[in-house]
Amino acid sequence: MFEPMGAESDRAVFRAEERVIYINIDHPQLVAARGAGTVEDPMFLRLSYEIAFSEYAVALAQFDGQKRQFIDLDEPLVVVREAPE
Fold first, then answer.
1. Cβ(56)–Cβ(23) below 8 Å
2. Fewer CB within 10 A of the end CB, N or C, for the chain?
3. Cα–Cα distance between 44 and 47 in angstroms, integer?
């Protein structure tokens, strides 16, 4: 979902209690990708998808980390990369 969060905030945030990824429509990268166009512009959508997928990967690692105790900080990344699609 898109939400205005201010230019200084992160590109996206995952709210675990809602299980929703919010994409910051005010972030400078998104503002530049949108330009004078709409949220339907292919460049804007491509960046939005990349942001959402990145945030999803981090959230997945966090959830998995709650179930398992990772000793090495690289372990969640390996788990996410090896997860079936």
1. no
2. C
3. 5
State phi, psi for 3 to the nearest 5 degrees: -150, 135
Instruction: Look up tokens 């898109």; give the residue.
Output: 2
The owner of tokens 């330009």 is: 35
Global confidence as pTM? 0.71
Closest CA to 11 of 74, 68, 55, 65: 55
Q: Residue 60 — pLDDT band, cuts 50, 70, 90? A: confident
Kindly write down the DSSP assignment for every residue of 2-65, as one continuous string. EE---TTS-SEEEETTTTEEEEETTSHHHHHHHTTS-TT-HHHHHHHHHHHHHHHHHHHHHHHH
Phi then psi for residue 64, to 5 deg, are -65, -35
User: Taking a C-beta distance cutoff of 8 angstroms, is the pair 33, 47 a contact?
Assistant: yes
